[in-house]
Amino acid sequence: MIKYTGYNEVSLNINGMCHVVLIKPNETLLNVLREKIGYTGAKGGCENGDCGACTILLDKLPMKSCMLLAIECIGKEITTIEGLESTEIQKAFVDFNGFQCGYCTSGFLLNAFAMLDTNPETSDSDMHIWLNSNLCRCTGYEGIEMAVKSAQKKILGKK
């Protein structure tokens, strides 16, 4: 087992690129992404894992980056919203206005992307369970749900 103390130079695989950063063992992935690497798509909201604004994918699974230590992510694949360029879910959020102020949008996009990547035939009830891990205080969720269902249809149509 490796013990980390003080500052440590580590390599993080983010959006398919290696980033070498100097971190302390107690730094969250959210802080490292935003403050040290410059990926600002993940947002700090509640800072305790409830709101989902900080959602990223860790080895393709949605995780709250405010609850992860950056040191725990060494050797893992990290995907941020910046890594989801030109995906069906991203296009659908634009087409169906799946956002209002935009603060929560990246978390919803990453969560929905992971859901559809894991199971494109996700049922409506399972979709609600997946999307319940993110909070939006603006839209009332209608645009978000329509966007996810639209992306799902397009993904299923390509199979």
TrEMBL record:
Q: Where are the transmembrane segments?
A: none
For whether the record's keyword set contains Cell inner membrane, the answer is: no
The family database entries (SUPFAM superfamilies) matched by this protein are listed as:
2Fe-2S ferredoxin-like, CO dehydrogenase ISP C-domain like
Limits of the 2Fe-2S ferredoxin-type domain: 8-84
Give the UniProt keywords, A-Z.
2Fe-2S, Iron, Iron-sulfur, Metal-binding, Oxidoreductase
Q: Name one GO molecular function term.
A: 2 iron, 2 sulfur cluster binding
Q: Does the keyword Signal apply?
A: no
Kindly give the InterPro entries that the UniProt entry links to this protein: 2Fe-2S-bd, 2Fe-2S-bd_dom_sf, 2Fe-2S_ferredoxin-like_sf, 2Fe-2S_ferredoxin-type, 2Fe2S_fd_BS, Beta-grasp_dom_sf, Diverse_Oxidoreductases
Question: This protein is called what?
Answer: (2Fe-2S)-binding protein
